[in-house]
Amino acid sequence: MQVLVAVTEVVEVADDFEIEGLSIDDRYREYDLNEWDDYAVEAAVQLAEAGVADEVVTVTVGPERAEETIRMALAKGADRAVRVWDDALADQPLLDVAAKTRLLRAVVEAESPDLVLAGVQAGDDAWGATGVSLAHAIGYEWAAVVTGFELDGDRAHVRRELEGGVEALVDVELPAVLTIQTGINEPRYASLRGIRQAQSKEIAVRTLADLDLAADDVESAIELTDMFEPTAEGETRFLEGDAGEQAAALAEVLRERGVGAE
Amino acid sequence: MTTVLAVAEHRRGELRDVSLELVTAGRELAEAVDGDLHVAVVGGDVDRFAEALNREGVDTIHTVTEGEEFNHDVTLQAVEALAASLEPAVVLLPNSVDGLDYAPAAADALGWPLVTDAVGLEADDRLVATREMYGSKVATTVAVEFPAVVSIRPTEWPAAEGLGDAAVEAFEFDLDEGAVGTTVTGFEEAAGGDVDISEADVLVSIGRGIGDEDNLDLVFDLAEALGATVSSSRPIVDAGWLEKNRQVGQSGKTVTPEVYLAIGISGAVQHVAGMKGAKTIVAINTDPNAPIFDIADVGVVGDLFDVVPALIEQFS
Asked: Among A100, A112, B264, B292, which is least packed by CB within 10 angstroms?
């Protein structure tokens, strides 16, 4: 079977940062493989190692810069990658779920995988929606927030992580999209050999025209109108000084609240 | 008349708290668009749920008797049928784990734009939602035309109060059984253990900042000095360094100790959901902009590897 993994490059923001218009100033942006997707890649690679998956393909919507992140997924064991990008995408400050769904749907229809794995959410914008939206659009079944799954013929036995330490057990018909939660496995570090091999693996670039899509298809219905630093809800009393002075002041705070009293 | 449709959530026989928060958010939105608030509940003991949902400001409650527990295929079909019948301006859903499992499908099925995890909602000629990004370091506003599907973050709105006089109506639709490809077969509690962090008066809670499993000794030393119990944020449990029963947060335990000492925890919303009820929150973090400081009563900006040993010294 073929397993497709949706891989997102996320923006990580430095401790101190500035907002420039509707985005974080370039100087304070770093890029990385989305944490949730790291677990999804690992789950797919484990299926390949178990002889269940014949091929693991990643798909990413992102500019050329994202190839560094895609190479990380390839170095961990994915076989090849598809990267979707177009000038029409570069101009949009926010690509909404529907637009991302149309892009990914076109790739899934070309690849027709038996299983699609995606992260529960992207660590930066946290929409948490692309995987399930994609599943519905392509007519696959799905399960969101998955902490374990086992393939069994034409279905998957899936654990969904609910609130408060409870898990739901669900059976899902294949083909399906599973959105993967952190902690489902232990993502590997890329080996030196893997990193070398990744250099020669294919990253196929697809434009809107390649996917039979028009610029209208990816126009976001959602407009980003403002970005700002949230104001703190309460009053925090910050303890000043060096570590010793801070610890002494903190000890006093804690003792006032009965901590450490036998 | 413009309609706002909020869809309640229940699990294992209980209406979940977010349902009454949806009523509050829905009522505010209905007032803003000068419309009606309709609430729907799908499956389970719908009559009992309808009674609990009948709060001030709710105009109509639609009960759908189909199944017991949440099934995304059934809920999705019910929401599609309700939307076709009521033509609401907004379908308001919870950004809960089950919400994540059907809100995006509902938006795709209806062909409406989707805004998830809203922490604030306003309406003029468009819907304006406040959302957070980058682990709550940044807030954004987004605007979208009606109709739209919107999911709200749990615990951001207060629970609706006051007895309502809503009309309760049974809503019937033809379920397409062939389109139900997912079956819920059961529930399981996370593995137990002998530590009950929800009973502790003082919690020393550790996050990603601890860096390495070997450094956990330092935290246990502090807990011993303070007479406290050790808990953690999610990454520590994901890494397998502590058992799941020590995890504080949305998918772990909700705790309300006298003192919560958050060490090397950035304060992601899922974590904060589980500890914001603590009486005194102390945070130690190297990042002065960490969201944990937004809710901390006492803050220490500094390296835990300097501050924690000094603090142990103070108590030994």
From this structure: A112
Rounded to a whole number of angstroms, the CA Rg of chain A reads 22
Q: Are strands B182-189 and A166-173 parallel, antiparallel or unpaired?
A: antiparallel
Looking at beta carbons, which residues of chain B come within 8 Å of A228?
Answer: 138-140
- In this complex, is the C-beta atom of B260 within 8 Å of any C-beta atom belonging to chain A? no
φ, ψ (nearest 5 deg) of residue A79: -85, -40
| B11 reaches A (C-beta below 8 A) | yes
* Closest to B12 in 3D by CA, of A172, A132, A148, A164: A164
* Nearest CB to B287; choose among A15, A141, A234: A15
- CATH of the domain spanning A2-218, picked from 3.30.300.10, 3.20.20.80, 3.40.50.620, 1.10.645.10: 3.40.50.620
Interchain pair B315, A124: CB under 8 A: no
CATH 3.40.190.10 fits B197-314, yes or no: no
Q: Please give chain B's pLDDT, 316 residues, in tens.
A: 799 999 999 999 999 999 999 999 999 999 999 999 999 999 999 999 999 999 999 999 999 999 999 999 999 999 999 999 999 999 999 999 999 999 999 999 999 999 999 999 999 899 999 999 998 899 999 999 999 999 999 999 999 999 999 999 999 999 999 999 999 999 998 766 678 898 899 999 999 999 999 999 999 999 999 999 999 999 999 999 999 999 999 989 999 999 999 999 999 999 999 999 999 999 999 999 899 999 999 999 999 999 999 999 999 8
Does the distance separating the beta carbons of B225 and A260 come in below 8 Å?
A: yes
Look at domain B3-179 and name its CATH class: alpha beta
Q: Domain coordinates of chain A in residue numbers?
A: 2-218
CB contact residues (below 8 A), chain A span 221-240, against chain B: 221-230, 232-234, 236-239
Alpha helices in chain B (DSSP H): 18-32, 46-53, 72-86, 97-110, 216-226, 234-238, 269-272, 292-295, 304-314
Same fold, B3-179 and B197-314: yes
Q: Residue for token digits 């550790």?
A: B206
